[in-house]
Amino acid sequence: MAILKNKNFLLKNGKQLIIRSAEVIDADNFLKLGCSIISEEIYSLTHISEFNITIEQEMDWIKSNIENPNHLILVAELDNQIIGQLNFCNGLKRRIAHAGEFGMGVHKDFRGLGIGGLLLKTLIDWCKSHPLIEKINLNVHNNNNRAIALYEKHGFLKEGIRVKDLKYSNNEYIDTLIMGLIL
Question: How large a percentage of the chain has pLDDT more than 70?
């Protein structure tokens, strides 16, 4: 993982946000953020009952990403609290190594402040400067209009739909929208 220099941003609410690379010592706070986002049970692939990662597993995951120059984990930090994250991994095989996929989330109390856009812009800038990465891919619930609008604002195009790809516990099906950005 590339280690990014801390980037400071002024949010819409006047507070200072730091976007930086994740560190192993962030594992506990990273897990807490993940649990908070997943427990909303909306727009997440993982059900809260499946989220049983230990602190040691999270530390190992962060460490393994730090050691890979084609991976990136970003955290958004406000008042020394991790309130957003983005993780990017490129393909492992030669024919797909030029492209990578990301996922991100922002704590519900801090949405609407532009944090997702800042995380995404930081990723795009990093990918553009990376000698290997030529394309960024993502999957999004096709009913997540706010996220889709954000991705389109940053130049992502709709590439396909996986119909009835997700099934919620209430037996509701959701399609997955596939999007991509060629750099």
Answer: 99
- Look at phi and psi of residue 13 and say left if phi exceeds 0, alpha if psi is from -120 to 50, else beta: alpha
Q: How far apart are CA 81 and CA 6, in angstroms?
A: 15
Residue-wise pLDDT for 148-177, tens only, equals: 999 999 999 999 999 999 998 889 999 999
Alpha-helix runs per DSSP H in the chain:
27-39, 55-66, 115-129, 145-153
CATH architecture of 7-182: 3-Layer(aba) Sandwich (3.40)
Half-sphere exposure of 94 (CA within 13 A, CB side): 0
Question: Which of 104, 91, 95, 179 is CA-nearest to residue 137?
Answer: 179
Rounded to two decimals, what is the model's pTM?
A: 0.93
All structural domains of the chain with their residue ranges: 7-182
Closest alpha carbon to 1 in 100, 134, 83: 100
Q: Give the three-class secondary structure for 163.
A: strand
Residue pair 7/19 in contact by the 8 Å Cβ criterion: yes
